[in-house]
């Protein structure tokens, strides 16, 4: 499960003397792990990928150590091409992976960390325009150095406010995050906790880390501790195992700003949740800033105690949404600039209109295209883009049936599916029914009479009226619009 996989990537790697690019590659490899778990499942990940250890990294090559020849060969055959592809996408340049069998694997000595343990972050010393080396967000110096696994994680140097494109979907989150950062820079606290939530790839981590960067630029000595919830979990469990819970507490003792990313991962892990709650309360009482992200709002978090939920939601909670096409276009443009590639407006347009799920996917698609074009020397045309991104584009041509729509709408609005066919006219069933008819028209190729028949034999004029009603309501009723967007997303599998 997660623990074993996280444990593997957290092991100290051979980073002594490694170049900055090498370190970036190692960081990319580590940050890739959760998506590998997602792609291949926890069991496969734990069996084949988690045992790999980073041995070395240069700008474009990652050397991984495998404990046995068999494992090495298996990974080589079954996973290597995809791993290389994912890393190339993430870094926007071709990356190769070399596998090496490491004898005496279990005794594989972990060298001393390449940078001193627990130094105050010096992000402020970096000129903003130059992509900085990843800075380590860590706790203040203490007399005794902490083991490496008890240190904080790096902030990604790309995740700054000026690299964040705003649009309707995220302006509020952006402004709120900036205000949190500005207040912290002045030594005051605006909202506590600051809680960002929304689906994957919408910029939560980006904004959270941007707060860290901004703060560290004006106050380099502030202790910003950034941890994914998985790291929190891992560190805590490991502290228990190593009987070093004091060390674990030390990690938070001198923190000024605590950022925990994706806290939904803590849900249901009782002891960890308890420890998190304790840490959270202590820091809140001490007037320290806490910033959290999750894939849903505090009160929607499953398996989290009510008292914790209400605490989590007691500051400012902001939701992030999927960017509209115009914003997606602007984001792509900016990413293409950063990658230093010229892309025709047609290709940008194609991506912006077809990849509507989230920014990460958008970015991934762009990186993939760019990596492909660089590797093959081909020109990026819309045809090539279609061909190379077939798998991403396919989702949106998936066939949606009226049955699917009725079920998903009924679930969203909490009515029975049978109400879709019933003659009942009460508003609480009539409105969702209209939504379902509208979506049937939007998302399937059925005619008005076909749709009418699928809704308990209604007349086609009823369907037309339903569609018109919903079209006129969407701009006026934000909640309804949101619900419709949610259902549409579910139906399109994104
Ligand atoms: P989340 O944490 O919500 O899953 P991330 O913050 O990791 O999402 O964002 C995914 C990727 O998309 C990152 O590379 C991030 O820089 C980029 N991204 C997200 N939103 C924006 C935006 N509005 N402008 C520029 N880049 C963005
Ligand atoms: Mg994130």
Description:
It contains 21 helices and 10 strands. It has helices at residues 2-10, 20-40, 42-49, 69-78, 80-91, 171-185, 204-218, 229-241, 245-253, 270-285, 306-312, 325-339, 345-354, 359-376, 382-388, 390-394, 402-413, 427-443, 448-454, 460-473, 478-491; strands spanning 53-57, 61-66, 96-101, 135-136, 154-155, 194-197, 224-228, 257-261, 289-294, 316-319. The strands form 3 sheets. A 5-stranded parallel β-sheet has the order 7-8-9-6-10, sandwiched between helices. It has a 3-stranded mixed β-sheet with strand order 1-2-3. Helix 10 links the parallel strand 8 and strand 9 (289-294). Helix 17 (402-413) crosses helix 21. The longest helix has 21 residues, at 20-40. The chain is globular. The structure holds adenosine-5'-diphosphate and magnesium ion.
Please describe the structure with a list of short key phrases separated by commas or semicolons.
three-stranded mixed sheet; binds adenosine-5'-diphosphate; alpha/beta; binds magnesium ion; globular; 9% strand; 494 residues; five-stranded parallel sheet; 51% helix; disordered N terminus
* Coarse structural class: alpha/beta
Bound molecules: adenosine-5'-diphosphate, magnesium ion
Mean pLDDT: 82
Strand order of the largest sheet: 7-8-9-6-10
Q: Largest sheet, if any?
A: 5 strands, parallel
Report how far apart the termini are.
Answer: 25 Å
| Tertiary shape | globular
**Helical content (DSSP H or I, runs of 4+):** 40-55%
Q: Please count the helical segments.
A: 21
Strand content: 5-15%
**Residue windows where pLDDT falls under 50 for at least 5 positions:** 1-16, 104-144
Radius of gyration: 25 Å
Count every beta strand, where a strand is a DSSP E run of 2 or more residues. 10
């Amino acid at each position: 499960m997660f623990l074993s996989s996280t444990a593997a990537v957290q092991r100290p790697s051979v980073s002594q003397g490694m170049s900055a690019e090498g370190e970036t590659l190692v960081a990319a490899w580590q940050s890739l792990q959760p998506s590998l778990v997602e792609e291949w499942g926890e069991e496969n990940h734990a069996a084949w990928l988690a045992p790999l250890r980073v041995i070395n990294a240069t700008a474009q090559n990652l050397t991984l150590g495998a404990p046995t020849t068999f494992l090495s060969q298996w990974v080589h055959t079954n996973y290597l091409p995809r791993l290389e592809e994912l890393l190339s996408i993430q870094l926007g340049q071709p990356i190769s992976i070399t596998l090496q069998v490491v004898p005496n694997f279990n005794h594989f000595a972990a060298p001393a960390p390449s940078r001193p343990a627990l130094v105050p972050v010096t992000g402020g010393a970096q000129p903003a325009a130059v992509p900085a080396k990843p800075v380590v967000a860590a706790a203040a110096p203490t007399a005794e150095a902490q083991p490496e696994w008890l240190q904080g994680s790096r902030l990604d140097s790309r995740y700054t406010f000026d690299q964040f494109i705003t649009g309707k979907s995220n302006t509020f989150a952006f402004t709120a995050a900036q205000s949190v950062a500005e207040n912290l820079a002045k030594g005051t606290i605006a909202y506590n906790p600051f809680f960002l939530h929304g689906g994957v790839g919408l910029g939560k981590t980006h904004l959270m880390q941007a707060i860290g960067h901004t703060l560290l630029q004006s106050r380099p000595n502030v202790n910003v501790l950034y941890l994914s919830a998985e790291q929190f979990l891992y560190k805590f469990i490991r502290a228990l195992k190593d009987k070093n819970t004091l060390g674990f507490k030390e990690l938070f003792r001198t923190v000024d700003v605590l950022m925990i990313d994706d806290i939904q991962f803590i849900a249901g892990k009782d002891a960890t949740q308890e420890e998190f709650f304790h840490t959270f309360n202590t820091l809140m009482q001490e007037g320290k800033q806490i910033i959290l992200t999750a894939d849903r709002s505090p009160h929607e978090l499953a398996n989290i105690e009510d008292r914790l939920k209400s605490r989590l939601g007691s500051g400012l909670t902001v939701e992030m949404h999927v960017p509209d096409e115009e914003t997606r276009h602007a984001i792509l443009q900016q990413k293409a600039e950063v990658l230093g590639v010229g892309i025709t407006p047609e290709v940008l347009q194609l991506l912006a209109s077809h990849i509507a799920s989230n920014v990460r996917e958008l970015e991934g698609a762009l990186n993939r295209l760019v990596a492909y074009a660089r590797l093959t020397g081909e020109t990026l045309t819309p045809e090539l883009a279609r061909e190379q991104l077939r798998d991403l584009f396919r989702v949106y041509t998936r066939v949606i049936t009226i049955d699917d729509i009725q079920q998903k709408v009924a679930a969203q609005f909490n009515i029975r599916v049978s109400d879709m066919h019933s003659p009942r006219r009460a508003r609480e069933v009539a409105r969702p029914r209209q939504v379902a008819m509208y979506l049937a028209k939007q998302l399937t190729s059925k005619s008005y009479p076909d749709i009418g028949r699928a809704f308990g034999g209604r007349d086609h004029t009823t369907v037309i009226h339903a569609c018109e009603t919903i079209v006129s309501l969407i701009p006026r009723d934000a909640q309804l619009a949101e619900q419709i967007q949610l259902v549409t997303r579910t139906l399109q599998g994104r």
